[in-house]
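Below is a complete specimen:
___
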Amino acid sequence: MSVLERILASTRAELSQRMSEVPLAQMQERAHTAASGRLGREQRFRSALSAPGIAVIAEFKRRSPSAGTLRAAPDLREVVGAYERGGAAAVSVLTEGPNFDGSLSDLLEARVACDLPLLRKDFVVDSYQLYEALVAGADAVLLIVAALEQAALVELYREARALDLDVLVEVHDRPELQRALQLGAELIGVNNRDLRDFSVDVQRTFALLEDVPEGVAVVSESGIGDAAQLRELEARGVQAVLVGERLMRSQDPEAALVELRGVREPRGDVVLDTHGQGFRSPSSRPIML
């Protein structure tokens, strides 16, 4: 059994337990209430990735099967606040429990901690999880092509969009990319980590870029370690990167994010980014010019 198959098995077991505690109809009712409070906030995630320059989706995760614990007893609000101050365009929250020590409570807390668009990062196999994401404050969900048959992928994508959730469709090779494009995906995440053996190679992103049509945004995920990689990815047309481990391991996530983004030295109480698009105070929300 591969790592991915093992994770999917535990995901389904956990999901079955949650569904027995809160039936689908009840979760749908909660989602309907949550959706009524989101009017005017549709496509926040996708819009956040569309600004000039390469965007950083900063990820909060406690551990991973390959790297173990990333940060001892992390304070979620502190970390997410640091991401917002450091210039993250969006925040990804890992909500899978058995293998990543995540939970929907983390997503709920992140929603309170910041006003950035939130991505629920999990192994979605059932529409119930889409309603959960909406209730917990997510703006977007992840659908992993390798984890789903095409019919299920299509149905989950359609349901997510009907709920006004943006969808990051994750691939790691050409056959998966073709499946995502057939789906009509507008946001493609290229996972540089193969979930079957957890090997990492950023060249996966470069190898697939030539097959991505114009108008489809690409997010490079995993293995991103420094500003030079960001600049190279941006030069090749990548719209955003998703970074978790490097930031979670840092003693100062805000400073690590600022360094990763390659911003210049502070000038007074503001920082001018390398694209000259605007200023950002290290201790406040962005100031748009």
Remarks:
- The CA atoms of residues 77 and 113 lie 5 Å apart.
- The chain has twelve helices and 13 strands.
- The radius of gyration is 18 Å.
